Amino acid sequence: MQVYLDNSATTRPFDDVREMMREIEAENYGNPSSLHMMGVRSEQELRHAREILAGLLKVKEKEICFTSGGTESDNLALIGCARANKRSGQHLITTKIEHPAVLETMKFLETEGYEVTYLDVDANGCVQTDTLQNALRKDTILVSVMHVNNEIGSLQQIRELSAAAKAFNPAILFHVDAVQSFGKYRIYPKRWGIDLLSVSAHKIHGPKGTGFLYADEKVKMQPVLFGGGQQGGRRSGTENVPAIAGMARAAEEIYEDFENKIERLYTLKTGFIEELERLDQVRVNAIPVGDEELSVRVKKSAPHIVSASVGGIRAEVLLHALEEKGIYVSSGSACASNKPALSKTLMAIGVERTLLDSTIRFSFSMETTKEELDYTIEALRELLPALRRYTRH
Amino acid sequence: MQYASFLIKYTEIAIKGKNRYLFEDALVARIRGALKKVDGTFIVSKNQGRIYVDTEGAYDFDETVEALKCVFGISGICPVVRTEDEGFEKLKEDVIRYIENVYPEADQTFKVHARRARKNYPMESMELNRELGGAILDRFPNMKVDVHDPQILLTVEIREHIYIYSKVIPGPGGMPVGTNGKAMLLLSGGIDSPVAGYMISKRGVKIDAVYFHAPPYTSERAKQKVVDLAGKIAKYAGTIYLHVINFTDIQLYIYEKCPHDELTIIMRRYMMKIAEQIAKETECLGLITGESIGQVASQTMQSLSVTNEVCTLPVYRPLIGFDKQEIVTISEQIDTYETSILPFEDCCTIFVAKHPVTKPNLKVIKRHERNLEEKIDELFEKAIETKELIIVE
After folding, report:
1. Partner-chain contact A320 B350, CB within 8 Å
2. Is A324–B216 a contact, with Cβ atoms under 8 angstroms apart?
């Protein structure tokens, strides 16, 4: 049995997405900027994709800017806006549990003279509204908060946070890294007070190397890539037409029968957590504690990510042992796990030091089944005692 | 200036008496092998104690030199200008043009060294030296003759063609691979063992290798790293047969049955035994390790003697008297360093004790190994039976 539980790293591209891309690649290879018919046909593909994505977010088509993925979207939003609004102030705010695409970009901006405040999170990985309020300053120009954390699945109250920022100063730009949440929540930037939103295609069963940045038309943003002036000059470079079309198709598909799919994911997640917690020395991270039923508390986090700390076993060893049984998971966050550094996110939510290197992430997709999760629990029940017998002294 | 040929210099094999032709033939074969991967047509020929590489048509000079620098047995590579014999006046012009191109500053001391291999050439060597030297002095007033210690030793060889050369690019030295039998290298992912393999290979020894992996404690990437390292050595040593042994069961069994501080030393004894068995099956005449006295607990004099005790084949340890920095320097030269320092766990470190024995006593070790009697033979056989062979070019 092969069980792919690393969907926060990347997802299997949908069959019809792959087919559609192959077709466009074969037939519709014109440059969307070319004046002839071939170019026009490619441009229509782009326009169609823009319509779909703008429709899902209820924003204007021209507010969708195609990029090479989540990392580029974050870079463009942060660098582009920081530079364009430098005269209004040089203070930026983000959280301690952002993806490196945001944290490293912030670090770069610090070298350009900006000052960055990194907000603490609580034990569930959530930013409290007053934490943000206390950090806001007259010269704050931008706040960047991820919607769903990629390592632990914690969920931020975006509407409250953006409202707090805008109440302090309506000119503050609010950026959301939605790479892990687009396709898991219905997101409406205009209603939620979001000015900039980063999305990646390969997390929603689309192709790798593609994504988009939603940027409100009123946002002043400098380009980061210069060249032929495509996409209104915001992002030069010939658009990756097949991949963009594939991304739009994947988004459409993922939002079909959406509420039922999400409800099913939450049921799977609740059942999986119950089983995990029955295993010896296993603790699930970032699920709020309280009197409410688990099924209610689970909904305060994302439907597809389960972070578990397994006492006495190194995450990488468990990962490879599960791999031998056909189960694919991540240790910490896949993007960060080829360098053996301890997870900043896990430290920020106060995971004990001894468990930092013993934490693995299971991440589901709409295609994950109950059978797969049962099989995974079975495998863990067998592996954990066996692996605990042999440890470094 | 177009160099159409290379004169290959070799020193050590020139002294091998009656076996000399064997070494020369091997060197010619290795040179042909190395040049197969380079674009261009190369004719490698041996006559009258010289090896020449003649090129036909276009070829990449830098790539060719790089390839030749990896052939053990070559002490020097001379790029040669090849001209046709169209009378002495023409030869004079060619020599002048050579100086103009190769030494544009033309202010060095020099000596002409003519060799008349084709004895029907109308002038004798001494005469050629004198006439060509005179022509150079006439043309370049700042050059001076120095017959004892010239800055430029300009050789002019009269053969079927005429060869003019003066520059020598150092080769790797050593002896052609395959002229000294075959040995089995214990290859880990570290810095030392690839260097040890390189050094023994340099003495003309063909190399096979054995790698011990321990899934799930070591990853597929750790194995790939070792394959990559073998590939880097193969650039010099030729094709390497890499035997991959699954060592997990033996390691866990030792962990269970023997004192923990002796785990590493007992483990190494079994690695040597397995390596020796494969070595004997594949007609290797010795084992090679990257050990260096005192570098780690398992490489003290006491530990080495305990490890060595299981072997009947000679164990070659070319790094035995080297400091770490000296080893690093060579690994940088042969381009294995960057790969070696990739942070993947190898099977020697996974269960290592905080304080492993540094002065193991053979009698005690042997007594503790008796705890393994029940299953070790079976596990040993299984490890050898399930070995995987990877052919690294």
Report:
1. no
2. yes
